[in-house]
Design goal:
The protein is an alpha/beta fold. The chain has 2 domains: 2-170, NAD(P)-binding Rossmann-like Domain (Rossmann fold, 3-Layer(aba) Sandwich), CATH 3.40.50.720; 177-269, ProC C-terminal domain-like (ProC C-terminal domain-like fold). It has 12 helices and 8 strands.
Length: 274
């Protein structure tokens, strides 16, 4: 699907480099199909050399050479990056923004109303090729173009496409911020292991392997999450006692409130972006 496309990355920080790395490693494209540019010329040079991809001196050059332009800069840098790229954007181009909170309307104001725009919300697990990514496509984007963007991001994780741009705020609150929630819980589990007598290194090993194995069990099996939990919970046993304390502490309600707060804040931030 991507074999005849030229793909350019404006910004190759942690997320941009992860996308380049995953795309090249997946074999979906040849390195010669990929171009990179960054405000740090040294960074761009390093990434280009590491993966054997093309190096562009300016965003305009990159845009002119690319069919698909991935904007992976900080939200506050999107406007200036697109302003520089604009001369190279026109008919047949597709712009994909991975900048949190910058709406398709804001991007279209800079690149023009006829350029199709897709917004992507990847999370930090994309850095290890296990990301959870949400996509939203503006009305100018064709089904085929959505397929191209999905194929690109599937190189670094699992992809869902949402029907409205507002739902990207939900993706942000659930999956974008999600690694922090999970890490907080894992941190608390390690501390609990230390409390009951385990060394911190041993507790950390047990907690992280338990999390990894449980996630794999949930993803590879056909049982739903509640059924898997019931399999571990014997009547009157240790797990039942522990779960009672978690429920008594309002763990479910706290998680729901946390996600709602993150979604609300994501919406507020989107409204403040130019």
């Amino acid at each position: 699907m991507l074999t005849d496309r030229k793909i350019g990355f404006i910004g190759v920080g942690n997320m941009g480099e992860a996308l380049v790395k995953g795309l090249v490693a997946s074999g979906r494209v040849e390195p010669s199909q990929v171009y990179v540019c960054d405000s740090s010329a040294r960074r761009a040079r390093d990434v280009a050399g590491r993966y054997g991809v093309g190096l562009c001196a300016t965003n305009a050059e990159l845009a002119s050479l690319s069919d698909m332009v991935i904007v992976a800069v900080k939200p506050g840098d999107v406007d200036s990056a697109l302003a520089e790229a604009a001369p190279g954007l026109g008919e047949g181009k597709l712009v994909v923004s991975a900048a949190a909170g910058v709406t398709t309307a804001a991007i279209s104001r800079r690149v023009g109303p006829d350029v199709p725009v897709v917004r992507a919300m990847p999370n930090t697990a994309a850095l290890v090729m296990e990301g959870a990514i949400g996509l939203y496509a503006s009305e100018k984007v064709t089904g085929g173009q959505v397929g191209l963007v999905r194929a690109l991001f599937e190189a670094v994780g699992k992809v869902v496409v949402v029907e409205t741009e507002q739902l990207l705020d939900a993706v942000t609150g659930l999956a974008g911020s999600g690694p922090a929630y999970i890490l907080l819980f894992l941190e608390a589990l390690v501390d609990a292991g230390v409390l009951v007598g385990l060394g911190r290194d041993k507790a950390r090993t047990l907690v992280l392997q338990t999390a990894l194995g449980t996630a794999r069990l949930a993803m590879e099996g056909e049982r739903d999450l509640a059924e898997l939990r019931h399999m571990v919970t014997s009547p009157g046993g240790t797990t039942a006692s522990a779960l009672f304390k978690l429920e008594e502490g309002g763990v479910r309600a706290s998680v729901k409130r946390a996600v709602e707060a993150a979604v609300r804040r994501a919406g507020e931030l989107s409204k403040t972006k130019p």
